[in-house]
């Protein structure tokens, strides 16, 4: 079998063949105890390379370095200089976009063409958007009732931030976390998911090349134990986490006990509604992309589809036909539209849900139960379940794979009840020509984001996040900047009676 390096460009291959090190205080160093762990290619299951396993000592060093930068060179930089460094980092990511797209495909299984079209441009866009914010962060003077006083507010960075990112959008999520924190003047210890460490390590090299003061950004590779050390470290002022609701709940509990600021972007079981007057062709295309993009490994996946009974058979038939044509294949193959799942663990998790759906009485209309031990990579073709009920696990739990459940409804009130019958609240959407009905549903559905005749639209300026078990706070936009800022009120008595 060919080495993974054989499908890569020279820059990505060169990166893989050199030593991989933690980035702490502006230096590239091995883990304090010398430990490493492997990262694998989901398209083949083969080991790609080894990366450092950061332990408690490395966490302590990174937090100390971040604090020193906050109190030193980074904290003393003018706002305009912070913006210039963010813009420089965006330029460097753009210069290395082909390399980063390949590393992302090799490490996470997302097709390289998708990375080039979406993930890498989105990361660049985030750094460019937030590069304009440092000089716009202003306090306010307040016309208070107390005579002879000046009252004003200052916006100050919240401090040292631990940022823990997931494996489904590694570089893009790093940008989502880093850009607003740095724009606000914070310093960061970034921990990528253990499944996808490579682009974070390459990003550390670009941060260093951009000229950020040592300690401003620190990058630690490791697993959940590393993340737990970060969350519990007393020198961390804020935690930003994207990942599962179960882990987010644990982080929130620990952060609350020590009064640390926290933002959590968690899971979803998002409903997508097709009304009777919908453009069927557009609705089918949107529903297909809404669930199967990134092989269903997305918190915002439209995994529950509710279709008006008058359109139900037509929509289901079209979706089933589309699944049969889906170009599933290796991530570095440019003809691939849908890559493998990220890991053996995720593969078996999704396989278990498919088996559970069949056992519960749902009809497996499209797709199949993947083999217990796959040959090669961790591929699961798109799956559609019909004849589902709201109490089934496949209807209620986040699967994080290419599994869609479809059910009919007879009127809008029934659709609303079905859609809101969930502990999650990340996203929801509707397909309709009646914009009055659409905006009525936007108010009735309990979700942080609502899409009309589209799915998972995004922009660095538009807040992203959910309600209920889908998280706390928002990513992107001014709302995310506020999460990295403290408001200080200053009172000055300048006259006495």
Automatic annotation (TrEMBL):
Record: active site: 265
Cell inner membrane as a keyword of this entry, yes or no, is: no
User: Where is each Aldehyde dehydrogenase domain found?
Assistant: 29-490
Under the heading PROSITE patterns, the entry gives:
ALDEHYDE_DEHYDR_CYS, ALDEHYDE_DEHYDR_GLU
- Which superkingdom? Bacteria
Which Gene3D superfamilies does UniProt cross-reference here?
Answer: Aldehyde Dehydrogenase, Chain A, domain 1, Aldehyde Dehydrogenase, Chain A, domain 2
Family note? Belongs to the aldehyde dehydrogenase family.
Report what the protein is called. Aldehyde dehydrogenase family protein
Q: What is the scientific name of the source organism? A: Streptomyces cellulosae
């Amino acid at each position: 079998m060919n080495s993974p390096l054989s499908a890569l460009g020279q820059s990505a291959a060169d990166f893989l063949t050199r030593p991989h090190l933690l980035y702490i205080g502006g230096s590239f160093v091995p883990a304090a105890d010398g430990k490493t762990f492997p990262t694998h290619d989901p398209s083949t299951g083969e080991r790609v390379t080894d990366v450092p396993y950061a332990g408690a000592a490395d966490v302590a060093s990174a937090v100390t370095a971040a604090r020193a930068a906050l109190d030193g060179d980074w904290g003393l930089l003018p706002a305009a200089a912070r913006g210039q460094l963010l813009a420089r980092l965006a330029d460097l990511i753009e210069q290395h976009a082909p390399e980063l797209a390949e590393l992302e495909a090799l490490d996470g299984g997302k097709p390289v063409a998708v990375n080039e079209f979406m993930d890498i441009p989105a990361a660049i866009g985030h750094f460019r958007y937030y590069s304009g914010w440092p000089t716009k962060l202003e306090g306010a003077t307040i016309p208070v009732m107390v005579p002879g006083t000046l009252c004003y507010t200052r916006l100050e960075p919240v401090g040292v931030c631990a940022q823990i990112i997931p494996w489904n959008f590694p570089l893009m999520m790093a940008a989502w976390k880093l850009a607003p924190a740095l724009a606000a003047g914070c310093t960061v210890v970034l921990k990528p998911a253990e499944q996808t460490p490579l682009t974070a390590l390459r990003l550390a090299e670009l941060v260093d090349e951009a000229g950020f003061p040592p300690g401003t950004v620190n990058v630690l590779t490791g697993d959940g134990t590393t993340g737990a050390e970060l969350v519990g470290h007393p020198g961390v002022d804020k935690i930003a986490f994207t990942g599962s609701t179960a882990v987010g709940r644990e982080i929130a509990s620990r952060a609350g006990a020590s009064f640390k600021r926290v933002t959590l972007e968690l899971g979803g079981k998002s409903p997508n509604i097709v009304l009777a007057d919908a453009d069927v062709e557009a609705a089918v295309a949107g529903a297909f992309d809404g669930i199967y993009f990134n092989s269903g490994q997305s918190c915002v996946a439209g995994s529950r589809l509710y279709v008006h009974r008058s359109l139900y058979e037509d929509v289901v038939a079209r979706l089933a036909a589309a699944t049969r044509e889906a170009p599933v294949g290796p991530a570095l193959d440019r003809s691939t539209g849908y890559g493998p799942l990220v890991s053996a663990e995720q593969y078996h998790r999704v396989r278990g849900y498919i088996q559970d759906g069949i056992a519960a009485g749902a009809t497996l209309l499209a797709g199949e139960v993947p083999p217990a031990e796959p040959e090669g990579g961790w591929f699961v073709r798109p799956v559609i379940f019909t004849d589902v009920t709201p109490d089934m696990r496949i209807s209620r739990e986040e699967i994080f794979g290419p599994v869609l459940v479809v059910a009919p409804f007879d009127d809008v009130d029934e659709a609303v009840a079905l859609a809101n019958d969930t502990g999650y609240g990340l996203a929801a959407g509707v397909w309709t020509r009646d914009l009055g009905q659409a905006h009525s549903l936007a108010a009735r559905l309990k979700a942080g984001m609502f899409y009309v005749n589209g799915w998972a639209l995004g922009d660095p300026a538009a807040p992203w996040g959910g309600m209920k078990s889908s998280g706390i706070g928002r990513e992107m936009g001014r709302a995310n900047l506020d999460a990295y800022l403290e408001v200080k009120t200053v009172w000055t008595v300048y006259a006495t009676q």
